[in-house]
Amino acid sequence: MTDVINTNDNANPNGSNFSTELRTILMVWQRELIRFGRNRTRIITSLSQPLLFLFVLGYGMSTLVGSTEGFDFKKFLFPGIVAMSVVSTAIFSAISIVWDREFGFLREMLVAPVRRSSLVIGKTLGGASVAALQGTIMLVLAPLIGVRLTVLLVIEVIGLELLMAIALTAFGVFVASRIERIEGFQVVMQLVLFPMLFLSGALFPLSGLPVWLSVLTRVNPLTYAVAPLRQVVFAAQNVPPAAAARFSAQVTIFGHVLPIWSEVSLVGIFFVVFFLLAVQGLSRRQ
What we know:
single chain; mainly alpha; two-stranded antiparallel sheet; two-stranded antiparallel ribbon; 13 helices; 3% strand; elongated
């Protein structure tokens, strides 16, 4: 960021040219990747929780739930665990903004003659890249629980992971732009993250729920990010009809089954809303 400041002393933030904005985005994105790569503890801990859920909860619940024509709870749970890995990493990647604010580096970035949107894009792409990588690593575990992978499936999953990661990172940046202390960010995110995950259908089917719980899952934006991921995974598994009915991967609203394109569109809208709010948050006086 120092290079950007030094080479654009006389520039107008509203008139920054495309090359400067692109350079800013790439520098912020690269900084997020370097920060993550140097923090081995964060890499390990971000993988440990999804692994715990997959193998402990998955095998434990499989003995209670049983299987339907060879399709068991572990296979249903796997896409949700991939989503959990992506979401938790994406949201908490925004903590770097709070960290930079405490140490004064955020102010240096904000006085640079570049658009606030470029800073948010760089932060979002950096966090989303790391989160999507974490989710893709989880695919290595698929054969261990009997989930079949294909080239097309991997491509589709990575694409959905990126969309999910971008949307949740933008949400994290929005929250971080309004919080002054790291401790406060962690508390807020813990209060937000776990309800979003548990009410997204990542850990249980969305069919046959009580009315009040069904309503909560439908108003949760993360539901519409988890559902397409599970549907593309199920499509490659030749799930028996009885198992598909029991372990439903679809979201229904008023009896209407939402197609994947509408779910993806809702996630895209979620991203746009919180991206704009994040830009507004960083545009405030810091």
